[in-house]
Amino acid sequence: MRSFPPALLMCGSLLTAVSACPDDHTPPDGVGSSIALVWAGEPTQPVPANSTVDGLSVQTSHASGAGVAATVELSVLRGGGTVVQRQLMTDSDGAGPVTWTLGPAPIANELEARVAVPEGDDVRVTLTVAASVSSDVEPTPEGFGDIDGFLTGLSRAGSTEDLAFETVAGKDSLLMGIPGGIARVDPSGNATEVPLSGDSIVQPLGIAVGPDGDWWVCDSGAGALLRVDASGVVATVLSNDGVDDLVTPNHIAFDNAGRLVFTDSCLGRVYLFDPATETIEDMLQLDRVTQGGPNGVAFGPEGDLYLTTENTGLLCQGHSDVQFDAPIGGLFKAGPVSGAQFGELTPVAENVGLFGDGLTFDAEGNLYVIFDTAVEGEFALDESIVFVLRHMETELVRWFGIRDQLVANLMFGRGDFGATTLYLTLLAVPPFASPNARGLVRLEAGVPGVL
Q1: pLDDT at 123
Q2: Distance from CA of residue 408 to its chain's centroid?
Q3: Do 9-134 and 142-444 come out as alike in CATH topology?
Q4: Which CATH class is domain 9-134?
Q5: Among 45-54, 127-136, 301-310, which is the least confidently predicted range?
Q6: How confident is the model at residue 118 (pLDDT cuts 50, 70, 90)?
Q7: Where are the domains of the chain?
Q8: What is the spatial distance between Cα 221 and Cα 202, in angstroms, rounded to a whole number?
Q9: Domain 142-444, CATH 2.30.42.10 — does that match?
Q10: Whole-prediction pTM
Q11: Residues sharing a CB contact under 8 Å with residue 428, sequence separation 6 or more, in sequence order
C-alpha cells in the first residue's frame, strides 16, 4: 500500500509542502490559490476486493488551516474501481465524504482528487490516495458458451488449449484452438469451425494474431509452427530449428515491433523468430531438470519477455531425468529483446507448481499467470491457480484457484467481449480433468488488457 502523508501535496511528479503549485512554483495570490487538500481515513490495511473504503474523505482548507468549501474532482487512476462522486463540494468546514469501491483483482488501486482554484489562476492542487486489495473471498469464473457440446457435435475428441482475439471490419471474434482446427466464438458464446485448406492442423497449443492479421499456430500434433492467411490457407513455416525437429511447439507472443517468440516445452527452448524472413534469430535453452520446459510467453510494458515453465517428466518422452512430481514450474524474465537477441534469463518466482501455463498483461502493467499445483504425495493435481505479479513488484499474489477444472491460457477481451473481462480456456486431460472439461470461462478483472 502506498500513501502520502497528509501534509504533502502532489504537483506533477514532485511532492511539496506548498499547498498550490503553479508553473513557477510560487503560490498565486487570492482566495483559493492557497487551498490545501488532504485525505482523511486513508486505508492502512488491504481492503477486500469489490469493497468500499470505509471512512474516506477529503479535506479542503486555507493555508491558515481553516476549512473552506471547494469543488473537488475525483477520478480512478488504477485498479478498475469506481467512485460515486465524479465531483463533490466540501462543506463549510472543508469536509467531503468519498465513496470509493475497489476493483476485483488484487492489484494497486489509486484514486485522484483535484481542486481547481478560482478562475484566472492556472493552478490545480492534486493528491492521490492508494489502497491494496485483498482476496479473502476468491471469485469463481463463469462458463462462457458450450464448447464441449460444440465439439461433441463435431465428433471431435481432445482438449481445447489457447485463445486469441481479432477484430475484422468492426466485428470482434474470439479464436480458439480445437482438435483438428480453429473455432471462432462470437460475443454470445456461439462457436463455429473456421473452414481451412492447405496443411492440416492437428493439435494446436498456441494461437496468436500477427500484425498483418495472419494467424500463427503452434501445433504439437504436427510438430510445427504454422501460418494461416486471411483466406484460411494453412502453411507449415517451421518444423526443425536447425538442430532438432520441433517436438511440442507450445505458445506464441508478438512484441510491439512484430517479432514473434514461441516455445517448445520438450526441447526446453524459446525461439525468437522473424516472420518476414521465416528464420530463427535467437534461441534460449533452459535446464529442464531444474527450471522446467518453457510454456507460456508474454511481453511486458517495458518490452521484457516473461515466460512460464512446466515439469516435463510426465509430458515428454525420454525425460526420465526429470522427477515427474517435482514442482519446478516457475516464472522467468528474459530481459528486453534487443535487436535479434534475447536478454539474460532471470528467475522471478521458482518452484511455484507442477506446471506453469498461460500468462497475460493488463494495461496497467500487471501480469496474470497460471500455475497448477499437485496434491502432496499423490499422483493428482490439486489446483489451477491464477496469480498476479503486480506492476513493479517481485512477488506473485494469489487471486483465485479452481480444483475441479484445469485452466490453460487466459486473455483479456476486446470490443463486444468486454475489455475488462478475462477469458480463460480449459484443458481436458485425463486423469487430471474429465474429457468433457474443455471450453471457456470468464470473469471480471476491472481493468482492460493490453491490445
Answers
A1: 60
A2: 14
A3: no
A4: mainly beta
A5: 127-136
A6: low
A7: 9-134, 142-444
A8: 5
A9: no
A10: 0.91
A11: 148, 158, 159, 160, 406, 434, 435, 436, 437, 438
